[in-house]
């Protein structure tokens, strides 16, 4: 096993995590001449990748990380990145970097972790957009979270990453309770997670219409007994118009519309499907298609002014574009922002009347 002592070479470092993102990061570092001392990954402990030994964090808790820089090779909502940061610092790491910092070490990196992490997005060029959007947020918690998200996504400093509220997604306990009974439109329903969360928060639900284009997810959704008589589950995607689009389907929450998708699905404008149906709540988590989906249900929104619960973490520009679009319709919505998952995933815009 290689020595765990920090080598004097200033271009060397440690990578934490060896999933698909971690492997891509290691490949990028090697391609640019960076020396990776070792990789930390409990699940692959005792193995190696490209000749680099893989250890578990408990193998290096005796100060062997002293003086090391550690680049976290994870980009998801499952892992508490701040906890990892604390554990690495306790083990002696002198600096902990996130994938946001990859470009500092490997300017020509090919790894594209996705979601809001887009190295081509210029935050400085959109400063006016962020200032305008921040001014539309009506409570201090929203503004503080907005500031923290922007700071973290630009600095990569994990200390800046806001702590999520993990247990009240779509039903935030510090915002006004939704008017009951709920009449829900759920776009990107997955297996009915949002409906379950409404029920867990003791909401009475009169009806729901759920759109889910992934066939595996839809099968689970359609089979679930929510105890709601008026329910409509549709194996469709949502868009600004009724059309067919390519779709990448893997049976997970990340199934999404994609030009490189492995199948073609039917997408609909919700206005074309639910004409005349009463709607009081709209939940959108459609893997980056939120803007187009909102456009495709503008008639319903203008006529009924439902509460809008819109995911805003798939693309960096969604942090301002979603609020901009709704505000441009002059319907009198008031905007809040909450974060419900680690690493600024699960960021949701709550637009209430």
Could you please describe the fold and organization of this structure?
The structure is a single chain. The chain is an alpha/beta fold and 353 residues long. It has helices at residues 20-31, 81-90, 102-105, 127-136, 140-155, 193-200, 215-223, 270-273, 290-295, 298-304, 318-328; strands at residues 12-16, 35-40, 48-49, 52-55, 69-72, 95-97, 182-187, 205-211, 230-234, 237-238, 243-248, 256-257, 263-268, 281-284, 307-311, 334-339, 347-352. The chain has two domains: 12-105, NAD(P)-binding Rossmann-like Domain (Rossmann fold, 3-Layer(aba) Sandwich), CATH 3.40.50.720; 130-352, 3-Layer(aba) Sandwich (Rossmann fold). The protein is built from eleven helices and 17 strands. The strands form three sheets. Strands 9-8-7-14-15-17-16 form a seven-stranded mixed sheet, sandwiched between helices. Strands 3-4-2-1-5-6 form a six-stranded mixed sheet, with helices on both faces. It has a four-stranded mixed sheet with strand order 10-13-11-12. Helix 1 links the parallel strand 1 (12-16) and strand 2 (35-40). The N and C termini lie far apart (62 Å).
